[in-house]
Design goal:
Elements lengths: L18 E10 L2 E10 L20 E4 L6 E4 L1 E5 L5 E8 L1 H5 L10 E9 L8 E7 L2 E7 L10 E3 L4 E2 H8 L14 E3 L2 E7 L14 E2 L12 H7 L14 E9 L5 E9 L18 E4 L5 H7 L4 E3 L3 E2 L25 E4 L4 E8 L4 E8 L10 E3 L12 E9 L2 E10 L1
Parallel strand pairs: 19-25
Antiparallel strand pairs: 1-2, 3-4, 5-6, 6-15, 7-8, 7-16, 9-10, 9-11, 9-13, 12-13, 14-15, 16-17, 18-20, 20-23, 21-22, 21-24, 24-25
Length: 413
């Protein structure tokens, strides 16, 4: 059976179906008073399939609505430390994740965030490296009238926050003291409590997921336009609520490797009905980035270009080490070979010459400043004549508005 409920705008296009306006008139103190009501008698021709779903994923990109409306930048910021270790700072905006109602239950059931990293964009490659979830508890109530053979402990409510439980049972109440083997007795009923998730709710530890603005209270209004006009101090310069801005730092990464970073949102499900927590897929919300120096660091610090692997060896086993061939699928070895240039300005020209000075390849590197991978470019070891390179010593030059650099590449095939 397919349901198409009258008056329900399923696809969000503003059309709720066919309707009639009914008018009722009443004589009050010698004057006619009219009352109007809109009655929908047909749906919007879109089936009303509604099921539980996870919260929307947080935003990893900034699209600046004020004042110009089209400035786009990534919230993933990489750099290389003094010890040549790669680090990445991931920021995200969780407004939609934390304020969107579940279409099935009608509740705001946001529970927390998880940060993932992967060496591939495939779902199976993503591994969680940190998580945050609200400090809340499921309250199980003992039903002494439960049928024989059934579990007398029943879960009848949504998870309670700690403050909600302390409002019920006193300001010193600690639900962690009352697991199933030590129930809490209150007004003739026994209860026990279990954390909804891990209750990793500390947002002050900067080595974990934390707030960028830890002292920022919740917004006065959730309307972005009104807040921008009347409560500017509650918003970032990009027009985002400070309260929903988060950050996590990932350290000890290999600068030479391309990583895929994702932040997901998950809910608390519906424990009373047996519905487990739902989470957005990490491979649907990721940014691919090298943990290398951003353009602004390269350009302001005059950093030298780095080329790797150098020397390049045909027997170097680079594919198995993840330096080449990732995401290409099955292809001959000569078609997946790569030499990498990093510490590049966002716009430059890369030229490779033979030892005799002949131009082998010219590459135009033209990226938005500090865009993901804008400090990095690959050469596929193919000449400008679409031929495979041969063993030898080659020179490269990097030219940009910030100056020129030259270097040597050794290729052994």
């Amino acid at each position: 059976m397919i349901y198409d409920n009258p008056g329900v705008d399923t696809d969000g296009d503003g059309y709720r179906g066919k309707y009639r306006v009914c008018i009722e008139s009443t004589l009050v103190d010698g004057e006619w008073a009219f009352d109007y009501d809109t009655v929908y008698y047909q749906g919007d021709n879109v089936p009303d399939f509604k099921g539980a779903s996870p919260p929307p994923p947080p935003e990893l990109w900034v699209i600046n609505p004020y004042p110009i409306g089209d400035t786009i930048r990534s919230l993933v910021t990489p750099h290389v430390t003094e010890t040549n270790a790669g680090e990445v700072t991931i920021q995200w905006y969780g407004y939609r994740s934390e304020t969107t109602k579940d279409p099935f239950s009608g509740e705001i059931d946001f529970e927390g965030y998880r940060v993932y990293a992967s060496l591939t964009e495939e779902l199976d490659g993503f591994a969680p490296i940190c998580s945050y979830d609200k400090k809340n508890y499921n309250r199980y109530e003992y039903n002494r009238f439960a049928a024989t053979g059934t579990d007398p402990w029943e879960l009848n409510d949504l998870p309670f926050t700690l403050s909600e439980l302390q409002d019920l049972y006193g300001e010193d109440f600690d639900p962690d003291l009352y697991p199933i083997d030590n129930p809490f007795y209150w007004e003739g009923t026994s209860y026990y409590f279990m954390p909804q998730d891990w209750n990793r709710a500390d947002l002050s530890d900067t080595t974990l997921i934390h707030k960028i603005y830890p002292d920022q209270p919740p917004p006065t209004t959730l309307d972005h336009d009104s807040a921008w006009v009347y409560y500017r101090d509650e918003m970032t310069d990009d027009g985002y609520f400070k309260y929903y801005m988060y950050e996590y730092n990932i350290t000890n990464l290999l600068p030479s490797q391309l990583y895929y970073f994702s932040v997901t949102a998950f809910d608390f499900g519906s424990p009373a009905s047996g519905l487990t927590s739902l989470e957005t897929r990490p491979n649907k919300n990721y940014i691919a980035e090298y943990p290398q120096n951003q353009n602004r660091l390269v350009e302001s610090g005059g950093l030298n270009v780095v080329v790797y692997p150098n020397p390049y060896r045909g027997d170097g086993n680079y594919k198995d080490d993840g330096f080449e061939g990732r995401g290409i699928g099955e292809a001959p070895d000569e078609r997946i070979r790569r030499i990498h240039f990093t510490n590049l300005p966002h716009k430059c020209t890369i030229r490779i010459f033979s030892i005799d000075g002949d131009l082998v390849r010219q590459i135009e590197h033209d990226m938005q400043k500090d865009h993901p991978r804008s400090m990095h470019h690959e050469w596929d070891l193919i000449t400008r004549n679409t031929q495979m390179i041969v063993s030898g010593i080659y020179y490269y030059s990097i030219e940009s508005e910030y100056g020129s650099q030259v270097g040597k590449i050794v290729i052994i095939l």
